[in-house]
Amino acid sequence: MGVIVMKVELSWLDRTYVWPVMKGMSITFQHFIKQLFTRTAKRYTIQYPDMKKEMPAGYRGLHELKRFEDGAIKCVACFMCEEACPARCISIQAEEFGDLNITQGFEEKRPAQFKIDMLRCIYCGMCEEACPKDAIWLRNDYEVAAYDRLSMQFGKWDLMNTYAEADGKDRISQDPTPSVPRRTIAM
Amino acid sequence: MDMLASLLHTTPAIAWMALKVVIVFGGVMSLAAVWTWVERRGSAMIQDRIGPNRARLFGRWPILGLAQIAADGIKMFFKEDLVTTDANRRLFWLAPILAFVPALMGFAVIPFGKSFVSGGQTYHLALLDPGNGMGMLYPLAIGGMAVYGVLVAAWSSNNKWSILGGMRASAAMVSYEIGLSLAVISIFMTTGGYDPAEIIASQSHLPWKWNVVPQLPGFIVFFTCMFAETNRLPFDFAEGESEIVAGFNTEFGSMKFSLLALAEYSHLMTASALIATLYFGGWQVPFVKDPPVLLSVASFVLKLVFFAWVFVWIRWTLPRFRYDQLMHLGWKVMLPLSMANLVFHAWRMSQGH
Amino acid sequence: MFITFALITLLGALGMLLQKNVIVAGLCMVAAFFGVAGLFVLLANPVAAALQIIVYTGAIMVLVLFVIMMLNSHEEEKAQTPRPVQRWLSLALVAALAFGAVKLVMASAGLKALAVSGAAVPRAMTLQKVGTTLFADHLLGFEVAGLLLLAAMIGAVALTKRDL
User: Is ipTM beyond 0.90?
Assistant: First the structure.
C-alpha cells in the first residue's frame, strides 16, 4: 500500500529562509532564558551524586532478605528462588535448626548460606515472584558497585542488612534464639 | 607609556606595539578559550541541560564551571601525542599551526577602540595603523588562507573521511568567498574607502546610519558567508560528525586537536569582530558623539561578544545543510543577492545619494 | 626583510619543483605566493599583496588542491628513465635566460636613474589608485580581458554540461 506524502506548500515568507531561522532562534532563546532563570532544584537534570532520583514503586534494585521482628530470617531455604533464577546467581545451603519445642514448630529449615552473585544478577525479580514466603524482595537501591569482584558476592548477612540504614533497623550478624513460636508473630 | 618604555630600554613606539600585540592576541586567545566554555554551557541551556559545572578551581570554588577550561587545557596538554603511521608526518605537524595562525592574524587590522592622543602622540587601537594600504583586504586575504589548515589537516592524516571533509570545506570556502567579497565591496563603495578606520568613521554614532540598515541584503550575505568561512554549524562540512566521523580532525589528538579547536574559536572571534566593524559601527557607541576611549573599547567588545554568542546560538538552533543545498545557497542565492546589493548601491550612488 | 621574503619565495618554488608529492608541491607553491606577496608589501604595494593572496592562494591554489584531492592522485610519481641530454640542455637554457635577464636589468634605464638620483620614497598604492588606473587608463585592456574570461567561462559551461 502506498502512502501519499503531502508536500507542504511553504509561504513566501517561509521560503526566504531568514524568517523561519529567526523563529527557530527565538524558540531556542526562550529555552535558554528559561533554563537560565530556573533554580537548580527545578531543572530537569538530576545532578546525580548530590541529587538522587526517587525510584518508582515496583523498581527492582538491590535485594533484601526479610526478617521477623526479632531478627530471624523469613527464608525457609526452599530453593524456589534458586530454581527460578534465570541468571543462576543464587546459591543456597540449607540447614536444619533444632529445638522444635521452643521455636515455631513447623519451620525447621533456614539458609546457612544464601549467596547472590551481584555480577551475574540481572535484577529480573523472578526470585521475588517465586518466593512462597515473601522472604526476598528487590527494592529501590540502584547503586550496586564495588572496587573488586569479591565484594560483589553478597552473603546471607549482607543481604539481610542491605536496607538496615534506610529502614532504621539494626544490623544483625547472627540468628537470634527465638523464644516464642514463630506462628504467633507471623499472624 | 614612556616610563614603561624606558624601563624596558625600548622606544615608546615599540613598547606600545608590543603591548598591543599582547592585548589583542592575548585577548582573542583567552576569549576563544572562554568561548569553548560558553559553547558548552550555552548549548546546554538551549537544550534544557546544565552543562559542565563540576570542575572547581583548586577543588574548591565552582565558578560556574569556568575551571573546565583549565581542566580541558591540562588534559589536552598531557595526552599522548599520536600520529597515525600512514600520515604525512611533517604536514601533520604543520596543519594545526596553519589553522591557528591565520585565525589569529585576521584580527590585526581591526580597530578595537577609538584612537587617542597622549603626550603629543596619537595611539591607534589596532595592530596595523590606519592608512597601511591593506585595509579590509587583509582580513579577506587571511580568511582565504584559513582553508589551508583544514585542507592540510585533512590530507596529511591520510584518512578518507578526513579527505572528504577537507574537500567539502575547500569547495564551500571557494564558493562562499565570492559572495562575501562582493558584499564587502559594496561597503567599500558606499564608504569611499577600504580602511577599517574610514569605514567606522563613516558609520557615525547613530545606529540607523550603520551599514546594516542600508545594506541589509549585504549583511545577510556577509553573515552567512562568515558561517561558511569559520566552518560553524549550519555549514560545518569540514567535520560533519554524522556523515564523515569527525572530518578533517578525525586523526588529531592531544594538543594538536586543541589547537584546531582553538583555531575555530579564534576564527569565530575574528569573524564577529569583522561583522561588528563592517556593519555595526565598530567601536562607535550609539548616541554618544565623542565617546571616551574606554567606553569605545567596551562598546566594541560588547558587539564582538554578542556576535560570537549569535554564532553559538545559531549553531544550536539550525541543523546542518546538505551539500547540494550548500552549493545551491552559495551560488544561486548568496551570489545574486550580493550582486544585486552591489548594483543597487552603485545605482543609488550614481543618483547622487 | 627582502632576504627573508626572497628566500621564502625561492625555497617555495624550488620545493614545488623538487617535491614528488603533488599536494606538498602545491603547498610549496603557496609558500612561494606568500613570499611574493611579502615582496609586494616591501615595494609599497599592499593592494597587490592582498590581491595576490586572495586570488592566488585563497582561490586558485585551493581549487587546484581540490582537484588534486578529487582525482585522488596522491601516489608519488615513479622515477622515469634519465634523459641526460635534455637535462643538460635545460640547464644551459636556464643559465642563458638568467644571464640575459640579469644583464637586461643591469643595463636598464630605470636602474641607472635610481643610481643617480637615489630612490624616492614611494607612495603606497591604494585601492583607489588601482581602480582609476584600471578603469581610466587601461579600460580597453580590462574590457578585452573581461570578454576573454567570459568566453572561457561560457565555453567551460558548454563543454561540461551536456543538456543545457
Answer: no
